[in-house]
Sequence to fold (332 residues):
Amino acid sequence: MTEQTLARAHAGDEDAFRGLTDRYRRELQLHIYRIVGSTQDAEDLLQETLLAAWRGLDRFEGRASVRAWLYRIATNRSLDALRASRRRPQEERMTEMPEPTRWSEPVWVEPYPDVLLEGIPDEAPGPEARYETKEAVALAFIVGLQHLPPQQRAVLVLRDVLGYRAGEVAEMLETSEPSVNSLLRRARAAFESRLPATERERAPLPNSKLERDIVGRFAETVEDGDIDAMVALLTEDAWVTMPPLPHAYQGQEAITAFLRGSAARRGAPLRLVATHANGQPAFGCYLSVSEAEVARAYALFVLTLAGDQISAITWFADSSVFPQFGLPRLLR
Fold:
């Protein structure tokens, strides 16, 4: 940032304002997504953040960096949106599905297209960060955040993901430093118990031969309708979850029963198109339409890998996210 650019922006030069803010758009959108859990809401709230920054530019005096100032606006816009939101997942128990291993607390969360992660600067997080960038975009991480109260969620992201100091976070949230520290202690205690076990084998590198082999075999088993072969790719303690539904199935026996019931209810074969979400392999899933040579958008699967196996399948039944992944509504 130069003094001249800021001065031009203060004078109403929109190009100068974009010069100050455009470099932060992608990372701000990801920050908002971490807090609200919705890809579409993150896009909308990013626009609100930039509009609020433009309208409030005369109050920016340069005491903090432009980046920190934008994060302050984005965080508070996100918290306001959560307070105003009427989206309250209902604990819907579908009788046609087999009894799950457990009933999870329903949460609203959407997958995040990897294309939106492109262009985010690969900068080291601040000195207080506890999580690597890759870990902090993984689906299990995002789901875990959604179980926290909004303010705890924001504090944990600002402190442990972005690495802002307690005093900086207190200023962003207009609260005290002791309050920030108290919120962080409670957030860490609740959040870390929800993360996957650390002793699990690491996932193969993105786009590596091992990853391509695993996801290729998975796609073949799904399109062939070979449930036994599909389940053979899973770890013994694998999970299948379907946010916001509370049904969660663990282990090969429970997952086999669930998959057989799902296949019977569909009554038609599936087709898959590979993509990536939250830094993980994913598939747009299409349901073949009887007596037509097309398949319609049906669901999106996100795979969590451990070594050469699959440790979790997250099943998103809402196909409205397909356009954000560049996926068509119909396959011909």
Remarks:
- The longest helix spans residues 66-84.
- The two ends are 49 Å apart (CA to CA).
